Fold Ribosomal silencing factor RsfS.
Amino acid sequence: MTSLELAKKAAHLLDEKKGERVNVIEIQEISSLADYFVLATGTSNTHVRALADELEEKLKAQGAGQPRTEGYRSNSWVLLDWGNVVVHVFTQEGREFYDLDRLWADGKMIDWQQGEEG
């Protein structure tokens, strides 16, 4: 699975679980951190954790491997890192505070709803 396919699958899975404001940003031309960031917002702390858990389970089952994770003890942000794809799941407050959409505005927004789904 390519990093773009993984990012799109993650976006679709987050959307299916009612994640809000799901964005995929291609950053490989401007950063060595990853190829893609996937950003999503949960409606509560519990929803953020549920989104992250579901994503980890489903992508692992599809062969993506085990991500490195951060933030499960946080009340506002969980990060799942598959190397070339990093997923950030926030509460609304966390997303506004960290404002990664603006921080990575030089990246290319990917229309993840085009092409094959999850």
Remarks:
- The longest helix spans residues 45-61.
